[in-house]
Design goal:
Helix 9 packs across helix 10 and helix 9 packs across helix 15. The longest helix has 24 residues. The chain is an alpha+beta fold. Bound molecules: glycine (GLY) and manganese (II) ion (MN) (2 copies).
């Protein structure tokens, strides 16, 4: 096992540099340009963009780590609580926030003022937040539409209700479909600068996964591995983009405990990501054999997942739908499991019946950007083309992204195979898809766990590009790294 020094703050160079240093002229132009395009897409009324506030953890002065609203980051760029922006007709824009208090310097030292934030954002006007409800009330009196996005935090729902003078229950139904559609159309296509941010985050993920592969061994608690990858992120000055999964029970899909001991023969599934300085996300999964060597059975199933990922990545192309990408992974999974004797019958019929979902119950992936599930707060307007509804079938119904892919989309490709004892038992007892599942062969898999492999992929003009620093993912490459001496 390497010593502390070997997983210290080695600089990594993935050829990309984050671009979100607050206040650079390039950024001011970027945010102004994005707002101008939004204003053009939603030509009438007022656009209201609320930022996030501090969220108290146990009392007001001890908040959770602050995370700015991603739409606010995208259009305004200010990574500071307690703000809002109004985009008025004829290009007028106002940034709202707390006015300076003479004592602020005591608690915060030298810091940007509201005027500085407005200048960085490229907004000519700034006002105290307390002025906002009056302006909105005047707009209402004049019959001007106020466009806003549906809030995902209860505190923002109540804040919007206060500002707009409506009941909290009326806020979500009053959200603007036109603004939602315009924001999705803009944010779903990533620029080179945004891609560079994501590749920066993946550079840190690469360091985290190499560390995990070098230190994972029997006898350690999952929390040790969690702490080591968290340490790498912290040493790089970055934070997680979601609570990581670090578990020897990968078959429990949302497993956020870190209390199990690693044993030789276990599979350790790590699904984690970080945010770049500009808050663009990575989202990577690798599955490792504790002890450093896959058993024959683990390697066989691993190869099925790897082939499903390869087939799905190959299916990513402009004009293809992500439903087709998902189904490519589903077919590869069913075909591979048939070769292993766990499924049977015609592969296309098995996939149409949803039989593969016993082993691969989730979707192939989601958009990624400023949110790890990019814009998921806006619902299926993000993942489904107009007029296309989610399937009601178990498995396919969990597909977050089905829509037609276009150049600039960034998506995750994350197939998996899991042996979920309760699900296998439920399906077996009910005879679900019995023509396609070899239930008689599943008994030996009750303690197998789960395997997932996840990478972040950009849709390009002529196909796709797997983003960022390559992270070992073939069984051989993983075994080589896990056996490497310090
Ligand atoms: N880590 C969340 C996901 O993979 O979707
Ligand atoms: Mn993930
Ligand atoms: Mn993901």
């Amino acid at each position: 096992m390497p010593g502390l020094a070997s997983w210290g703050p080695e600089p990594y160079d993935n050829g990309s540099t984050p671009t979100s240093t607050e206040g650079s002229p390039m950024q001011t132009a970027t945010w102004k340009g994005r707002r101008a395009a939004l204003r053009e897409a939603v030509a009438d009324g007022i656009i209201l963009l609320p930022g996030n506030d501090e969220a108290p953890r146990n009392y007001a002065d001890n908040p959770y780590p602050f995370r700015q609203d991603s739409h606010f980051l995208y259009y305004v760029g200010t990574d500071h609580p307690g703000m809002a922006a109004l985009l008025l007709p004829e290009g007028r824009e106002i940034l709202f926030g707390a006015p300076e208090h003479p004592d602020d310097v005591v608690w915060f030292g030298p810091h940007p003022t509201l005027g500085d934030f407005a200048a960085q954002a490229g907004m000519a006007d700034h006002r105290p937040l307390a002025d906002l409800p009056g302006i909105l009330a005047e707009a209402a009196r004049q019959g001007v539409t106020v466009h806003y996005l549906p809030p995902y935090r209860e505190a923002n729902r109540r804040k919007l209700a206060d500002w707009l003078g409506v009941r909290a229950a009326e806020v979500a139904p009053g959200a603007s479909a036109a603004l939602t559609a315009a924001v999705v159309a803009q944010r779903e296509v990533k620029t080179d600068a945004e891609v560079a941010e994501m590749e920066y985050a993946i550079g840190c993920s690469a360091l985290m996964y190499r560390t995990a592969m070098q230190v994972a061994r029997a006898g350690l608690q999952e929390s040790r591995i969690m702490g080591m990858i968290a340490g790498v992120a912290l040493m790089e000055g970055l934070s997680f983009s979601f609570p990581p999964i670090v578990t020897v029970h990968g078959e429990v899909l949302h497993n956020h405990g870190y209390g199990n001991l690693l044993k030789d023969g276990d599979l350790l599934l790590i699904d984690s990501g970080v945010e770049s300085p500009g808050h663009y996300c990575s989202d990577i999964t690798r599955t490792l054999p504790v002890g450093g060597v896959f058993t024959r059975k683990q390697r066989d199933v691993y190869e099925v997942v790897l082939e499903a990922q390869r087939a799905a990545i190959e299916a990513v192309a402009p004009g293809a739908t992500n439903l087709q990408v998902h189904l490519a992974a589903a077919r590869a999974t069913a075909s591979g499991l048939k070769d292993l004797g766990l499924m049977q019958g015609d592969v296309d019929e098995a996939v149409a019946a949803g039989a593969h979902a016993l082993f691969f119950p989730h979707g192939i992936g989601h958009m990624i950007g400023l949110d790890v599930h990019d814009m998921e707060d806006l619902g299926d307007a993000v993942g489904y083309d107009p007029g296309v509804a989610r399937s009601g079938q178990f498995g396919l119904g969990f597909l977050r992204l089905a829509k037609t892919l276009r150049p600039g989309f960034a998506v995750t490709i994350e197939p998996g195979v899991y042996f979920i004892p309760a699900l296998m038992e439920r399906w077996r007892a009910a005879g679900t898809c019995r023509d396609f599942i070899r239930y008689d062969r599943l008994e030996g898999f009750a303690g197998f766990g789960g395997i997932r492999i996840e990478d972040d992929v950009l849709v390009t003009e002529d196909g796709r590009r797997v983003l960022g620093t390559p992270i070992p993912k073939t069984p051989d490459d993983i075994e080589v790294l896990m056996s490497a001496e310090d």
